Automatic annotation (TrEMBL):
Cellular location(s): Cytoplasm
Molecular functions (GO terms): ATP binding; glutamate-tRNA ligase activity; tRNA binding; zinc ion binding
Originating species: Pseudochrobactrum asaccharolyticum
Listed InterPro entries: aa-tRNA-synth_I_cd-bd, aa-tRNA-synth_I_codon-bd_sub2, aa-tRNA-synth_I_CS, aa_tRNA-synth_I_cd-bd_sf, Glu-tRNA-ligase_bac/mito, Glu/Gln-tRNA-synth, Glu/Gln-tRNA-synth_Ib_cat-dom, GluQ/Sye
Catalytic activity entry: tRNA(Glu) + L-glutamate + ATP = L-glutamyl-tRNA(Glu) + AMP + diphosphate
High-level lineage: Bacteria, Pseudomonadati, Pseudomonadota, Alphaproteobacteria, Hyphomicrobiales
Protein name: Glutamate--tRNA ligase
Amino acid sequence: MSSPVITRFAPSPTGYLHIGGARTALFNWLYSKHTGGKMLLRIEDTDRERSTEAATAAILEGLTWLGLTWDGDAISQWERAPRHREVAEELVKAGKAYYCYASPEELDAMRELARAEGRPPRYDGRWRDRDPSEAPEGVKPVIRIKAPQTGETVVLDDVQGEVRFPNKDLDDFIILRSDGAPTYMHAVVVDDHDMGVTHIIRGDDHLTNAARQTIIYQAMGWDVPKMSHIPLIHGADGAKLSKRHGALGVEAYRAMGYLPEALCNYLVRLGWSHGDDEIMTIEQMIEWFDTKDINKGASRFDFQKLEAINGHHIRASDPETLTQALIDVLPYIEGGAELQALLNDERRAQLVAAMPGLKDRAKTLVELADGAKFLFVSRPLPLDEKAASLLNEEGCAILKAVLPQLEAAEWTAEALDAVVRAHAESTGLKLGKIAQPLRAALTGRATSPGVFDVLVVLGREEALGRIQDQAV
């Protein structure tokens, strides 16, 4: 029986969870779910100067918001430094690594000579086979791996295929620094092995690292995990994704009003496809996702497409779920705190009732909040410019004329619709000529959900009060 799939997401806590990292986490999570395996989380915090608790918290919060859960506790790479040292010393004892006492000046001279001879700068192996008794006094050595000097190191990759690296280009790289701290290259291998990771899914900027890491695996006699190196995300102009393209933290997308499932839907389509399917649920992503379907080419980030997918997910959400999503995002969006302060059970019920009419007009939760503002305003309503122009002398006269019929009507959308249509017929006015000033009086705006839905959602007393304020 084959062992269960174990993937891992291993961010560095030097900043927020950016969108490329979120996609890597998503791919790892989906593959683990698809195969009935596990996804582990490792915080690669060995860069003590740049790693912060705040960044770690932001990464965990971003993953949680996206719904990307991990198995077990998050592991700190820095706390495992003694284990990394232990493995490096083991490699020295086994003759697979060695102490190197080359001074910074010697290393500079090696680089200069290589440049002068038109070669790439490489360590020349001068301590590879020397006897440790030749070690200079008082110099703390680094530990270097004894990399193979001939032939090739082959990385078998589910996305990139078979990638071959000439060993002459890989040199005897450092695995333990002179202060006893492990290099990233070494710590990753030890951690992945000890955590039982079977599948590594990460950006293709790690492909060269994969060759060096394979050398460490082989030196220890450990199984090399299956690799999938995914192309990076580019901006719309084809350049590597940066802040100006939208390489923001996940929390910025929350504040822009994107639903987590819509963001996951968009991200999974950046570099992976399932036929022509554009819109998919989390359950479908889990069912369909396989590393073999990841594209080799870089994908381009497109805000318009993200917005369209988000709009689709908003329209597909039921009113109760969408209301809760809107309430949850209020602390993060501009002006949301004011709306949150006005929220009570009655307003929440109104939001749920208004949601079918509101959600068809919104592509983001920010737009949804904006559309729902008419529920939160106090009388007399502030009017936007367009609404004020509709409530001119003629508009107010129309309201005054229709008000008695509304006051006498049964308070359902159908009954109110029938009353206003009958009034339009008896006065020879078009329905829109009555609906427009009604909408302006009810919402303070020229656009809103259907005017009869608005009347019902506001309730008889509030709706008639708003109309009376303008029908003077």
